[in-house]
Amino acid sequence: MKRIGVLTSGGDAPGMNAAIRAVVRKGNYHGVEVYGIYHGYEGFIQGKMKLLDLGSVGGIIQRGGTKLFSSRCPQFMEEAYRLQGIQKMREAGIEGLIVIGGDGSYRGAIELTKLGFHCIGVPATIDNDVPGTDFTIGFDTAINTVVNAIDNIRDTATSHENTFIIEVMGRNAGDIALWSGLAAGAETVIIPEEPYDLDEIVERLKRGESRKKKYSIIIVAEGAMPASKLAEMLKEKAGIETRITVLGHIQRGGSPTAFDRVLASRLGARAVELLLEGKTRRAVGIKNYQVYDYDLMDIMTTKHKADISLYTLSKELSI
Amino acid sequence: MKRIGVLTSGGDAPGMNAAIRAVVRKGNYHGVEVYGIYHGYEGFIQGKMKLLDLGSVGGIIQRGGTKLFSSRCPQFMEEAYRLQGIQKMREAGIEGLIVIGGDGSYRGAIELTKLGFHCIGVPATIDNDVPGTDFTIGFDTAINTVVNAIDNIRDTATSHENTFIIEVMGRNAGDIALWSGLAAGAETVIIPEEPYDLDEIVERLKRGESRKKKYSIIIVAEGAMPASKLAEMLKEKAGIETRITVLGHIQRGGSPTAFDRVLASRLGARAVELLLEGKTRRAVGIKNYQVYDYDLMDIMTTKHKADISLYTLSKELSI
Amino acid sequence: MKRIGVLTSGGDAPGMNAAIRAVVRKGNYHGVEVYGIYHGYEGFIQGKMKLLDLGSVGGIIQRGGTKLFSSRCPQFMEEAYRLQGIQKMREAGIEGLIVIGGDGSYRGAIELTKLGFHCIGVPATIDNDVPGTDFTIGFDTAINTVVNAIDNIRDTATSHENTFIIEVMGRNAGDIALWSGLAAGAETVIIPEEPYDLDEIVERLKRGESRKKKYSIIIVAEGAMPASKLAEMLKEKAGIETRITVLGHIQRGGSPTAFDRVLASRLGARAVELLLEGKTRRAVGIKNYQVYDYDLMDIMTTKHKADISLYTLSKELSI
Amino acid sequence: MKRIGVLTSGGDAPGMNAAIRAVVRKGNYHGVEVYGIYHGYEGFIQGKMKLLDLGSVGGIIQRGGTKLFSSRCPQFMEEAYRLQGIQKMREAGIEGLIVIGGDGSYRGAIELTKLGFHCIGVPATIDNDVPGTDFTIGFDTAINTVVNAIDNIRDTATSHENTFIIEVMGRNAGDIALWSGLAAGAETVIIPEEPYDLDEIVERLKRGESRKKKYSIIIVAEGAMPASKLAEMLKEKAGIETRITVLGHIQRGGSPTAFDRVLASRLGARAVELLLEGKTRRAVGIKNYQVYDYDLMDIMTTKHKADISLYTLSKELSI
């Protein structure tokens, strides 16, 4: 292979730029030209791309977001458009593609490989919900952003002796809630994977109160329930007043942490190697702190599982 | 005076601890004992206090929130309770009080001075809405927190080419919106002090789009209108889709900036001097970068005004 | 004027990019084209420049350093080269220049005005040592960087009960040392403007020790003496062991604070207005929180003075 | 066991407080009293300790340094003093000890176990050089501090087009240099574990220059050589001017990252379980993201190894 493409797709995540940089530099190291494809699969279909040289990825390792932009592309569901995209790539001499994104983006890549176009997936999403990898690019940055926000809110909670409910991202996966809850010393963490017990939450709040702890922080993953609903229930059930913060979009941005930059560099570089080894329909991931790769099809049958031991630990420590 | 008290009241603000520290150390410098009164005016009424020595304010200059706690105190509206508090203070030998808080807290202090108890006000609130001072303690930290949050959101806005509406604090004062909007390069800023023009906002968004700027950031102060309402109007009026973030309580917390710590140190120290000079019913403030003091009663007749030149500048720069 | 130039010169400072952005956008607002001149006066002499449109200053308000680069230019000392530069500018239709930098850069601007070329100065340097303005662009960011570093070091100082000497920038001006020392609660601050008294420093350290404060932080401006020299003196004189950190170049970088971005926006915009009003040999500055302008020649006769009241306050609070 | 002790020893590391908190809360969860022993082994010998209840570890999870202080203790080398300490512990009913620190601290713990006192080690040091664990508590925070500092310096390096040499901690272990170098996109990384080749470094710098990259960042671990020495060599050998920054003590402090807080919580909690299971002379660690434990004696025979694949990758990406 003498020329490959790289695109970012789905929700943006901090470290995507570090991954793009690694792909370009590792490609150049092996004498391969790397084209940046803009706006995800939309750019793939339309052939919107540009050669990325070493200079063009200078000074981006520390930037949040994605230099290549991202977008949803409903057209990509239709084979005709996918074929058109492959045609565009082939005309430009591009023989393989690295897709940086979450499992939605991986499905697109699988479709391309079915049409004979070589693809490698690199997991990047703040939700940490891509099966087959212990961590996705962006997750570590997101939990640090959340923890910093909670540290801020705790200043206020402590000063006014209030109970705060903080809603964090995570539609199906409770990873952000779990890690940031444990790291921030939250009294209660509610995740989609585990049933919650309102009585227990109330009892925990009252126990804290009885030993003169007059503030509490509850983290709830958006996929478990909206913060506003929990606030209502606590009020109705136990007369407990709470304050709500929905962290929202600040969780997606920010300069990536050291961990995310290193992860992005390792995974991006390995993806290039796989393409050069003639591999296709593979995803890279990190398992037991080793970079490895697996069949992209695995994501159809495997599901990401949050580390529930953190949930148990969180409960024990918020005695 | 040989013994004075200090309390924090109203919404907490970063730098309150730095002000407490300055009061204690400056008091000690002059051989005066300083008592910390806990939970604002509630503690005043109940005589909940503790001697603060040099060690007790070690390592707090960098902490958000307030070590002395804060709370609302409806009882304080009644003279009987205020008299009870003054009695408690006198029994403990406390001859004067420094009140760190916003203009609501100043009203309480005025009532105490009417009963002959010496009080000095120190302005601390993130809203910057205390008349008589260019800046309140906590404002600089709050706008930096907001600006960092917007920088994060911009990463995402840029990557996905969306328009974001960000709601910031400020019920009557647009200062947080104005300063953070200018500092973050927001395309539009909406504040309570100025009428907004929906047509102009739409036109600005479209103008940006026409020169290929595909994302925009709109800052709206909570006192002007909820972000959700603006989102609805933009959708109905012009079919523009937006995403909303309500920054909420993260704006109150965080380690104070250098500016806020210096301001708190200067104002806290000056308040002690005023008490020692036998002054009462005064507030300290900063005007033209000089520390000065003025009659607390001024807050009844004067209103804080946001610097509207920043609003004009913001518009010119977001051409 | 239909076309103006802007350059950055001298040591870089956070907020220079925000100032460039303001110049470009304010220029565009008035229908004026703005050219970026690269590498300071070197680019002026060689005519290295590029038209800056609105898009080219997108996403730079939050970046440290300077997009236009900076460099020393010995050639500029010679009139022949200055005349060559003016010739290059005139050929390109550029009728006026905005110089963003410190007082060294201002001297260059003065020379250009002597040759009839219109120049306006915008003060940007972390040292805060430009006469005629209360604050320079970059100073607020620098002191926050220093204060964060000291907060980090304090964690260690507290844990191990050591005395730390921290050397900060400031060859002639003690502003960084003064502000960060006060904001960080340093026990001792040594600046070029005031004589230090070793006996007093030792006594202060011992006094702290006697009341069981077992760690201390001393800030020394590089212009007062090297940290290493102070360490030697404390050891020889009083047998006091200290640890040294020289903060160095981290003080120049970082994303500008809200204050610096607002200041840069205001001053950059005002500089454009001055050029359009036909003014020359003026500098913009902030005085009593108002933007104003003054004769550039003033810097030859006036000297910046640090606010010594902060020095006194710092001593009183570190009782 | 009904009562256990916990101490911190050696250089402080961010996350030590989170580990202390986890020990106390996990202990309380199991109905065990936890005593904090102050100033490391010195406090052990002298019996300086205090019962830590739930409230006493409130609000410390986010603090750098160690609430229990740390210090070197030469006396502890002598068996008589160790026996004295054990005696003090027994008198207080303390039956086991959790030692939070690096491998030096582990040696002390081994000596105690030889005298029949139960000890469990928890690895905490920014250097990541404790054998038997993939990561030590504090390492992730330290590399983020370093990466942020380099991001700052890069602003300046870019603006002035200089080459910077940045010296980071790591006497025997290159982990900090390796990870932060990769994360910051440094051009060259020099570590104690690998020989450096001056010719290659020079060539790399010149290659960058030839493709118009005019600044470079070189990271050197203190254990490989001082930054000043490298600067001299580059000047003598190739006439290359560089600027130096020695990051120093800022690397030890700061609020711990989410990763470090989670790691500290997991390891601290597991250490308590081991004591309660009657185990002794064990260390907890993380291996393949699982908490596990191993014989403390292993540290005498095993050596920590940095992940050299990061070194290779760093070189390939800085082509």
From TrEMBL, chains A, B, C, D:
Its cofactor is Mg(2+). One of its GO terms (biological process) is fructose 6-phosphate metabolic process. Pfam families: PFK. It is found in: Cytoplasm. Substrate binds at T125, I126, D127, M169, G170, R171, E222, R243, H249, I250, Q251, R252. Keywords: Allosteric enzyme, ATP-binding, Cytoplasm, Glycolysis, Kinase, Magnesium, Metal-binding, Nucleotide-binding, Transferase. The active site is at D127 (proton acceptor). Residues 3-275 form the Phosphofructokinase domain. Its EC number is 2.7.1.11. ATP binds at G11, R72, C73, G102, D103, G104, S105. Its main location: cytoplasm. One of its GO terms (cellular component) is 6-phosphofructokinase complex. One of its GO terms (molecular function) is ATP binding. Allosterically activated by ADP and other diphosphonucleosides, and allosterically inhibited by phosphoenolpyruvate. Mg(2+) binds at D103. PROSITE patterns: PHOSPHOFRUCTOKINASE. Pathway: Carbohydrate degradation; glycolysis; D-glyceraldehyde 3-phosphate and glycerone phosphate from D-glucose: step 3/4. It is an enzyme of class 2 (transferase). Gene3D superfamilies: 3.40.50.450, Phosphofructokinase domain. Catalyzes the phosphorylation of D-fructose 6-phosphate to fructose 1,6-bisphosphate by ATP, the first committing step of glycolysis. Homotetramer. This is ATP-dependent 6-phosphofructokinase. The lineage of its organism: Bacteria, Bacillati, Bacillota, Bacilli, Bacillales.
